[in-house]
Amino acid sequence: MNQHKTEIKTELQNRLARFEEQCRAKGLRVTQQRREIFCAVAQSCEHPSAEKVFQAVRRAMPNVSLDTVYRTLASLEEMDLLMRVGLSSKARFDGDLRPHCHFVCTRCGEVYDIFPQPGEGPLPLPAGVQGMGEVKQVNLQLRGICKKCQQEHKA
Amino acid sequence: MNQHKTEIKTELQNRLARFEEQCRAKGLRVTQQRREIFCAVAQSCEHPSAEKVFQAVRRAMPNVSLDTVYRTLASLEEMDLLMRVGLSSKARFDGDLRPHCHFVCTRCGEVYDIFPQPGEGPLPLPAGVQGMGEVKQVNLQLRGICKKCQQEHKA
DNA sequence: ACTTTTATTAGGAATTATTATTAATAATAT
DNA sequence: ATATTATTAATAATAATTCCTAATAAAAGT
């Protein structure tokens, strides 16, 4: 393994290296299934659903189970190797239509409102949205651990 | 119905009026069920799930069905009388961890990436998030109709 | 007020998404 | 190579959401 070889590593290989590193750091085994599932998401640019990932991985590993896909996607998210788009599982509704955003606690699932403070203007939209279509709603979601869960975890 | 009476209308009454107006505009009937479901969400500040709304509405209407709640929540969303927090139904994953946001088409469900343009800084976080907890992820979602669906709809 | 028309609903069945169970398998340490 | 033990496949179970159909009730017409 010489210096040159290292330099020409592809991006995917870098990410795979990070994947193995993270697994070892968390004491998780580097299984064939985990590797394939990670690659399937890392190589896709279409924000696949669990089912799509399952289908993609099945092409290389015909016996992989859907349960493994779900379990692995959750653990990859835990390791910050991929992210989940939107909120998980069940839908939640908000009758307050004033512009505001949400803090979602990833531990307890609670959703908190964040209203703009006096003098705080509206969120600036990213420039890249131009030409994509008509924006009807802006939804800023901050995810993390809420105060309450932080305290309970300490105890 | 005198002028004074109109002035002291509560906020909920205003919203109910808008609700009826919107229903009529869309040719939807103003049923008891729709009214109750709308009120349940409008009065709640806890971002209730469909199940929670169902439970709340059942107290006033013991025979309302869960299907009606789902159907009505969807139509209220359609009429912009409430909003859905996060993405609907199934989870989607993203292996690209560089900061970017998503344009979600509410017609076809497609998710598009929006990367920051050269020189564009990171999103400013709303000030109100201070003290809520530890933010681990920022998720800006723009919802609307994508170019492709706009064109198909014209045809 | 009474009928008619037709959207809407209740109730339950069906479907879809996700998670749990368990015996068998395979990754790592020894 | 062997032992240890996390992980997996397969399937069952659960949770979330949607579909189906006859009965009901809102709105419009009389």
Can you offer a commentary on this structure?
Two copies of one chain form a homodimer. Chain A is of the alpha+beta class and 155 residues long. Chain A has two domains: 3-93, Orthogonal Bundle (Arc Repressor Mutant, subunit A), CATH 1.10.10.10; 96-154, Ferric-uptake regulator, C-terminal dimerisarion domain (Dna Ligase, domain 1). Chain A has helices at residues 3-7, 11-26, 32-43, 50-60, 66-78, 147-154, and strands at 83-85, 92-94, 101-105, 111-114, 133-146. Chain A has a three-stranded mixed sheet with strand order 4-3-5. In chain A, β3 (101-105) and β4 (111-114) form a beta hairpin. In chain A, α2 packs across α3 (32-43), α3 crosses α4 and α4 crosses α5. Chain A is globular, with a radius of gyration of 20 Å. Chain A starts with a helix and ends with a helix. The model of chain A has no long low-confidence stretch (mean pLDDT 88). β5 of chain A pairs antiparallel with β5 (133-146) of chain B, so a sheet runs across the interface. The first copy, chain A, binds a DNA duplex (30 and 30 nucleotides) through residues 27-34, 49-51, 63-68, 70-71, 89-91.
